[in-house]
Write a structure and sequence with these properties.
alpha/beta, five-stranded parallel sheet, 15 strands, elongated
Length: 261
């Protein structure tokens, strides 16, 4: 990986940030020869195969392939510096120390620290140890930190009014053509229903998966509102809800949620 003159690849889908990093690197590390700039992950991998640079500066979030996916393909053939816009979890995610990071917008002082570590590794001819394990841990931490907070309220038009329905009051959600039917309880605990335009799939991605589970391609249920489940033929079942006459179908693909019941 090392030679008399270190070389680098910069990959970022934002042209202005690529140019800024190139300018800062030229000032911080005059001996570094920037041999290629890539606009996305796939182009970065192609340019790496052509130029075999010593160091790769990879934006984590790029179209096509992420910086982490590019690093997996390259493996131990280069040293990596990951560039991220998410400063609130960058320090924790890169706590390993064997992988380095820069937070956008890159500042000269932080870049100088990175350059110093890279020079030390190249001078000692060090390789990144166990790159696959490091990338696995990095990806897991980034995904955990990037996960959105569960949805707390759903806005529904009921007659002439707009009702803010607490997610905790929802019994079930059922796809209804272009709409989603929300089965919920009002402030007196009475069963109510409302149609909203948000697709079921989009709602499911925002709900707390410890509380809501999909039991059919068109049905999601609040586990706390289930009274009992009766198994049917052909590995199906029916969910009965507390205080409601609605019975919800469980298809074969989702029966595993109730195997222990």
């Amino acid at each position: 990986m090392t030679s008399s003159q270190p070389t680098a690849l910069i990959a970022d889908d934002e042209p202005l940030l690529r140019s800024a990093l190139t300018r800062l690197l030229t000032a911080a590390w005059p001996e570094l020869n920037i041999v290629a700039e890539a606009r996305n992950g796939r182009e970065a991998l192609e340019l790496f195969q052509t130029f075999k640079p010593t160091v790769c500066f990879l934006d984590i979030h790029m179209p096509g392939m992420t910086g982490i996916e590019v690093a997996r393909q390259i493996g131990r053939q280069a040293h990596f510096v990951f560039v991220t816009a998410y400063s609130e979890y960058a320090v924790e995610a890169f706590a390993q120390g064997a992988l380095d990071y820069l937070v956008k917008p890159v500042v000269p002082e932080r870049l100088a620290e990175t350059v110093s570590r890279l020079r030390e590794r190249l001078g000692a001819k060090q390789e990144t140890p166990d790159i696959e394990t490091l990338l696995d841990k990095l990806e897991a931490r980034l995904q955990k930190k990037a996960a959105p907070e569960p949805l707390r309220w759903i806005k529904a038009s009921i007659g002439q009014s707009v009702r803010m329905i607490s997610v905790e009051d929802i019994d079930f959600l059922r796809s209804d053509e272009k709409y989603t039917l929300v089965g919920w309880r009002d402030h007196e605990g009475k069963a109510a229903e409302a149609l909203i335009r948000t697709p079921l799939k989009e709602l499911l991605a925002q709900l707390d998966d410890n509380l809501f589970v999909q039991i059919h391609r068109s049905v999601v249920v609040n586990l706390d509102r289930i009274s009992h489940v009766i198994r049917g033929d052909n590995e199906t079942a029916t969910v009965f809800l507390k205080g409601r006459s609605d019975n919800l179908p469980v298809s074969r693909s989702y029966l595993h949620h109730f195997k222990q019941m």
